[in-house]
Amino acid sequence: MSWRTVVISRRCKLDLNMGYMVIRGEEIKRIFIDEIAVVVIENPAVSITGCLLNELANKKARVIFCNEKRSPYAELQPYHGSYDCSHKLRTQIKWTDEQKGLIWTAIVAEKIKNQSRLLAELGHEDESRLLSSYIDELLFNDESNREGHAAKVYFNALFGKDFSRGNENHINAALNYGYGIILSAINREVTINGINTQLGLCHDNMFNPYNFSCDLMEPFRVLIDRKVISLKHTKFESEEKRSILSLLNARFLINDTQQTLLNAIKIYVKSVIDAVNAGDDSLIRFAEI
Asked: Per-residue pLDDT for 150 more than 70?
């Protein structure tokens, strides 16, 4: 079972040798390919062989490439994740608005519940109660946009009323980095299940290749928010990135078992796909985060 998160931050060459990823820099290091779940290439000066990329794709490892600001920018994603992708794509295209709306409503409710819980943890009791009331007001497919109203209250309570997600600062840099890591992990599981990442439940941006994954990641955003709050930093550099990446191997309760975040995402994604196909939101297995 893959479990390692490998971060490449210095200039080096990566290649494949006898089932190992070989890192050739100031020192030579070897990592068994079967153990690798995620590779984050932070330095654009890293060179990597086609053979290694092919093997990582075969093993369903997620490879994330960062830009010159060392923020997630692109990723390696196989075209096909299962043997019956064509059948699953035809099924996905036939998902009805009722099926998608039912599951999206459940996901929004879970997201707002997690946000409310975090606000309560941090002592924002009034805002936490307000978000809880939004869950009771939630309409089918969130037609009244409770998610949007909750987000405004939530971020104002966490970071102040002057905070905007559009600002360029260390807080947004950390949030974007963390959200990118979670999205990549979800993309991996969506692809493995043979589902197209572009056809979303709610998200339908024609320029977004990950609409479905963006839908599914919503309940997990609070993990990144909590971590960024706990760092209490005034900068966002390597140490802070390592702290966020450590979440992938943190353990959470899901389906009555303790699992790493990567395994929890695997269970959750499969359950959402089953729930949409069956039109039954009770099949969704949310992690307690």
From this structure: yes
Question: Cβ(209)–Cβ(200) under 8 Å?
Answer: no
Nearest by Cα to 59 from 35, 75, 83: 35
How far apart are the two ends of the chain, measured CA to CA in Å? 23
Classify 24 as helix, strand or coil.
strand
Q: Is residue 238 over pLDDT 80?
A: yes
- Helix boundaries (H) for the chain: 50-58, 85-93, 97-121, 125-136, 146-159, 170-192, 211-217, 221-231, 238-245, 261-278
User: What is the rounded distance in angstroms from the CA atom of residue 273 to the CA atom of residue 190?
Assistant: 9
Determine contact, residues 260/248, Cβ cutoff 8 Å: yes
Vertex 193: Cα angle to 41 and 251 (nearest 5): 60
Strand partners, 258: 253
Residue-range domains of the chain with CATH: 4-76 (3.100.10.20), 85-288 (1.20.120.920)
Q: What pLDDT is recorded for position 1?
A: 62
Query: Is there a contact between 33 and 279 (Cβ–Cβ < 8 Å)?
Result: no
Q: Which two tokens stand for residue 239?
A: 């140490």
Residues 157-171: what's their mean pLDDT?
A: 91
Report whether 257 contacts 52 (CB < 8 A): no
Q: What is the pLDDT of residues 40-50, one digit of tens each?
A: 999 999 999 99
Torsion over CA: 112, 266, 76, 33 (sign): positive
Task: Give yes or no for a contact between 216 and 190, defined as CB atoms under 8 angstroms apart.
Answer: yes
